[in-house]
Amino acid sequence: MQTFFNNEYLQTKQGREADRILRSCVHCGFCTATCPTFLLTGNELDSPRGRIYLIKTMLEGNNVSRITQTHLDRCLTCQSCETACPSGVQYHRLLDLGRNHIEQRIGRSPLAAIQRFIMRKLFTTGWLFASALGLGRLFRPLLPTALKKQIPPMVNPGKWPDFQGPRRMLLLNGCVQNHLSPNTNAAAARVLSRLGIQVITMAEEGCCGAVSYHLNAQEEGLAQARRQVDRLLAHLDDGVEAIISTASGCGNFTKGYVQLLAQDEHYAARAQRLAAYIRDISEILQAEDLTQLQPVRPQRLAFHCPCSLQHGQHLTGAVDSILRQLNITLTAVKDAHLCCGSAGTYSILQPQLAKQLRHNKITALEAGSPDAIATANIGCQSYLGMVTDKPVRHWIEFVDDLFI
User: Fold this and answer.
1) Which of 65, 91, 187, 373 is the most exposed place for a label (fewest CB within 10 A)?
2) Listed residue (223, 244, 214) closest to 379, CA to CA
3) From CA 13, how far away is CA 10, in angstroms rounded?
4) pTM above 0.90, yes or no
């Protein structure tokens, strides 16, 4: 694709990156067939190809409008288009550049700016989120059924394993997962202890930066990422074998530090070193001898593979393979590559589109009459759990259940 950027913009890091990405796009349209929003609206401007055209036009110096901002906001950043793209277009990076450009030019309405500020603080400040969740749970019995489903009940995490061994791995807590689903990491620790791996956590972890960055507070998100790099490298220096995430969204963003901090002279090499140790929990189990685990009860599950796992981390089939090795039956799920609509804060900011996507996903997941639904990201787990009577849990919890 030809670009017509002015020389001043081409001299910037952002300009050079945008030019490189745009020139790799051949406008073939393969991406449209896998784009969840385009499949719902049928509007070319709600497809990756259409958004690429909008971003190109904007970066070339043409007018920036609310209409352009609306179509960019409607993108889930699911990266399904990147999986389908034969040219390897780094669409999500171009989208970051486009969103940042439009944010600087026209900003947000006061109400939208306040909403995004509240979300950035609420979802990344542990005590604040815990307090809000506790208040919601206190009044949960008094709420209508529809609202009750949006507030998950208290979950007993069970006992953390009292195990010490020569192999140690650091397990990321995440900002909200420990409050919404505290059993997830406890279950992961119990399973890993059966494999001879000691699991440790950080007392004060901090946010990985994903929420702020994807809400277009990109400098704030990058600052959080740098602090996280420093924290995690300290644990690597202390001898941990790997840094594990059970929330695929957090893991995907943390792995992406290499790209996000590539132009940072102080953090590029540090992010590169860290990336070699970041692992999704499925990658850890894939590398272990699972014959050590001897399941004692059958289960029939539908697995929803989050976009951040299959399109972001390119781990399609990893969880399925592990579960089948443990004699867990998996039902077929139609259009498994499509997003469930959660997508971080997307379900709050774009509720109509998100609800349509969730309806389609739940229909596909329940079609095979599973006993329960498994996933690999706390956002998907919470969002899907609001509208189904079937249990929705992290897949590692089902693995842990095999031995109870």
Assistant:
1) 65
2) 214
3) 8
4) yes
